[in-house]
Amino acid sequence: MARVKRGVTKQKRHSKVLNLTKGHKGVRHRLYKRAHESLVHALSYAYAHRRERKGDFRRLWITRINAAAKMNGVSYSKFINMCKIADFDVDRKILAEIAVSDPQAFASIVEYVSTTSSKAS
Fold first, then answer.
1. Is the pTM of the predicted complex or chain greater than 0.85?
2. Per-residue pLDDT reduced to its tens digit, 38-54
3. Any domain includes 33
4. Between the chain's N and C termini, which has fewer beta carbons within 10 Å?
5. pLDDT attached to residue 121
6. What residues contact residue 67 under an 8 Å CB cut-off, 6+ apart?
7. C-alpha dihedral over 41, 44, 46, 49, to 10 degrees?
8. Which residue segment(s) compose the domain that 19 sits in?
9. Distance between the two ends of the chain, CA-based, in angstroms?
10. Residue 107 and residue 96 in contact, taking contact as beta carbons nearer than 8 Å
């Protein structure tokens, strides 16, 4: 069987890794072995944090809704409960956006939900 030298293949693989680790500090972007370690960790963190980001945004939306609801004299949990009783199906992302961009509209939503939920009870 013929001898196979892997010069070009190895070089391509190494340069691919080194290009992906371009912004890393020190030898983590210069030396292949360290760059490969750095890349493996970076990719695993990226994968995990893509999932974590969803929870981060949900927490942010809840914080914003809570602040706006308290300005209208009701807590977050009571507001969400009133929304469920009143059958007001708007997700937290949209509620948070309304709370930040248009406080009067959010106040009218709180008013509507509180009157509708009190009638349903």
1. no
2. 999 999 999 999 999 99
3. yes
4. N
5. 64
6. 99
7. -120
8. 8-120
9. 84
10. no
